[in-house]
Amino acid sequence: MKGLSILNYNNQSNSFSSEAQKDPDHVLVSSVTDIFTKFSGKDDIKRELELNSVVFSHEMVLKVLKNVESSPDVAIRFFDWVLETNGEKLSSKSYNRMLGILGVNGLIEEFWGLVDVMKKKGYGISGAVRDRVALKFEKEGLESDLERLKGVFASGSVDNSIEKVCSRVCKIIKSELWGDDVENRLLNLNVTFSNDLVKMVLEYLASEPAKSLIFFRWIEERGLVKHDGQSYNAMARTLGREDCIDRFWKVVDEMRSLGYEMEMETYTKVFEHFCKKKMIKEAVDLYEFAMAGSNKPSMSS
What we know:
Pfam families: PPR. One of its GO terms (biological process) is RNA splicing. The protein is mainly α. The chain contains 17 helices and no strands. It is globular and about 55 Å long. The two termini are 20 Å apart.
């Protein structure tokens, strides 16, 4: 079977694990960084991205932003491009990383502008970003901005951030067996279930795959959300374990039939788990599944 050469598993699990841990996006992240550093015109950027066969994922967006955190102009250009062309790839975490870049680099007006955008989306400022930016404001003597930043956390509006809503949703789901009571309590929250919120909930429920899948199915059946690539990938990552194999394949096959691709983050996490558990057949099948898609894994050593 094609792909078996990648699975010369030899009981040295640390060696295998380190291979799977290697960043498959490293070269592509560097290429994307170079493109947005060298070019500013939309046509030039579009051409270069196509030449490099770039397919954006949530994971790649985060890696590129981390790569350009000391170059705010490049970061802004990249973030705006993704927002315009692949907006669904920007999550609360992506916005927070961009916010941190703006704050730490002293782009105050842009920082507060993005805070306002995040509020409208229901995204809160993470504690890590708050602390980093607060240090910058304090160092630069920006007392009014420092007080304003503290005020964001002191205000009740933080309770409606996507992180807080996610916490309340997960608490309800974990509290008891799924049934009418759980469904009614979720409906009574009166929250908007965006794909970003659904993805976050699924990640928080990763230790309870059965409940995760029930929630995943129920929320779309009730017409509360239309699942997209990121929520399907989050569900696949949760199900990619030895006790959920059949459900995992059903979800990823369904995902592809709807036109959504497996993200490299999903492939890497599940593939590594299969290898760790010595599930060789499943690892080979996953490799072949990924190779048949547009996000092909790199197996270079």
